[in-house]
Amino acid sequence: MNQQNPAKGHPSQDLAAPDGQAGVPTHFTDPGHPEHQPRQSDLHPAANKRAERQVVLLFAVSVLGTIGFLVAYFAVPPGETVASMRQSNLLLGLGLFLGMFGIGAAVVHWAKSLMNSEEKAEDRHTLRSSDETRAAAVEMLREGAQDSAIGRRGVLKGAMVSALLLAPLTVVVPLVGNVGEDWDVSKFKSTMWRKGMKLTIDPSGRPIKASDLTIGSVFHVIPEGLEDTEHPLDEKAKAVVLLIRLDPRDLTEAEDRKGWSYDGIVAYSKICTHVGCPVALYEQQTHHLLCPCHQSTFDVADGAKVLFGPAKRPLPQLPIEVDDEGYLIAQSDFTEPVGPSFWERLK
Length: 347
Hints:
The chain has 347 residues and is α+β, with helices and mostly antiparallel strands. It has three domains: 1-30, no CATH class; 40-119 and 133-177; 188-330, Rieske Iron-sulfur Protein (3-layer Sandwich). It contains seven helices and twelve strands. It has helices at 40-43, 45-75, 82-113, 131-148, 154-166, 169-177, 232-239, and strands at residues 2-3, 12-13, 199-201, 218-223, 241-245, 265-269, 281-283, 288-290, 297-299, 305-308, 320-322, 328-330. The strands form four sheets. Strands 3-4-5-6 form a four-stranded antiparallel beta sheet. A four-stranded antiparallel beta sheet has the order 7-8-9-10, with no helix packed on it. Strands 1-2 form a two-stranded antiparallel sheet. It is elongated, with a radius of gyration of 34 Å. Residues 1-44 are annotated as: Disordered. Its main location: membrane. It comes from Pengzhenrongella frigida. This is Cytochrome bc1 complex Rieske iron-sulfur subunit.
């Protein structure tokens, strides 16, 4: 039996293996843990104190982030314009990020810079531990608490408790704030589209003529006068439409919908019937309309029927026609609710 020098970290080898081949290793010595490298915080009290201040600062960042989230939630409501919604979401997102990031970074930095960093090994044991092992585990937990030095670091303990107590408010407050909101689902059964209302380009509001569309053209459409309504964003969320022109020979129309299009021009709700994402990716060659959120695919040439994905219903079609001046107008509102299904729908 020959062994190489364990001090050099080489395995012990049995050169007289059972099959007679020399040099085949049969077992290895335990190399042990690498030499412990002390950290600056282990060697210098000033570095240890500096690391503690950094952890406290990170917890303070979390506290300020949570407070900022609450201020933004109450003082900067979304409003009725895209700009105000963008500002509100930005401030809420920033506060939520700082609140969660501060806690996570503080805990990681605390563990890496202040707690015991020496590696330890434990022998494997049976699933049912003995009473002595359990007692040892309790002792190890006690040692871990001592390693964290939380009992001797009052400021750090206070910062951690404050951050942990405040952080859940970023979730609880919006949930409580939404209690009692309007749950009248009947509002989803109709939109602001009315007979004779012009189709206009989103967002400019310019009316569209049938001559503006060539085969393959796609327009994002809103009702005329949308900006003059009391809640334009709410109305737009329900009434937005995708207007597409196909070769009339490619259209497959049900008997009761043959008068809903005009010379190959069809209008469908832009709101996916799965969870309400904006459907806007149109493949001209296949006439497929794709939802980017969950890949529901609709056939524009055949009543916007579902070809693929989790959506269960075709996109509602807006009946259109042309007025005396050549402008595209609605014949009526949608004949069915737009968007995802809800509990009061019959189909």
